Amino acid sequence: MPKHILVIGPTRSGKSQWAEDLANKLDSQVIYVATAIENPADFQWQNRIKKHRDRRPAHWETLSTPYDLIKVINKTMPPCCLLIDSLGTWVANRLDENDEEWDYVVTDLFKCIEKTSVKLIFVAEETGWGVVPAYPLGRLFRDRLGYIVSKLGNIVDTTYLVIGGHVVNLSILGQKIQTNQY
């Protein structure tokens, strides 16, 4: 099993379930890192979170980590595996950071990923396949997440695309490209 994995795809594609299936095959303790912020007033959001919880094995530990992803990665020790779901939600939680703050966070994120000996499985949305968002905040989200996914795809061992009811191993079928700053 690869050390670091990235699972990407559109909304409701099954990417989280595929990542969970991969984690289940590991001979490691799995810690599910939930980046969502719970909102009891939003019934639909709470229902989505409940479906994710109900699908996971009961023996998995769950950490609610809407902001401090870097701290969690840095403090976790092997033989644990962190299943981080999702990078899109984590990016959305941090949209209020200015470009300088954001660049600092992203640099730290990639430094900690490269040095950790913990297995990491990332789940991330693919957002850039449609029209350009009409609003600045939507464009900022799409650009920040797109950059992270592109760069992460170059440093993980395996990248899977979950789409149209299929899983495609991009690391076998694809070729890595150089990622530039967004």
Would you write up a description of this structure?
With 182 residues, this protein is α/β, with parallel strands linked by helices. The chain has a single domain, classed as Rossmann fold, CATH 3.40.50. It is built from 7 helices and 7 strands; from the N terminus they run βαβαβαβααβαββα. A 7-stranded mixed β-sheet has the order 3-2-4-5-1-6-7, sandwiched between helices. The longest helix has 20 residues, at 136-155. The model has no long low-confidence stretch (mean pLDDT 93).
Biggest sheet statistics: 7 strands, mixed
**The CATH architecture:** 3-Layer(aba) Sandwich
> Class in CATH?
Alpha Beta
* CATH homologous superfamily title: P-loop containing nucleotide triphosphate hydrolases
Order of helices and strands: EHEHEHEHHEHEEH
The CATH topology annotation reads as: Rossmann fold
Q: β content, as a range?
A: 15-25%
Number of helices: 7
Give the N-to-C terminal Cα separation: 31 Å
Contiguous low-pLDDT stretches (5 residues minimum) are: none
Strand tally: 7
Key words describing this protein structure:
alpha/beta, globular, Rossmann fold, seven-stranded mixed beta sheet, single chain, 182 residues
SSE map:
Elements: E1 4-9, H1 15-24, E2 30-34, H2 43-55, E3 61-64, H3 69-75, E4 81-85, H4 87-93, H5 99-115, E5 119-125, H6 136-155, E6 158-163, E7 166-169, H7 170-173
Parallel strand pairs: 1-5, 1-6, 2-3, 2-4, 4-5
Antiparallel strand pairs: 6-7
Binding site for GTP: 9-16, 34-36, 53-56, 85
Catalytic activity: adenosylcob(III)inamide + ATP = adenosylcob(III)inamide phosphate + ADP + H(+); adenosylcob(III)inamide phosphate + GTP + H(+) = adenosylcob(III)inamide-GDP + diphosphate; adenosylcob(III)inamide + GTP = adenosylcob(III)inamide phosphate + GDP + H(+)
Active site: 52
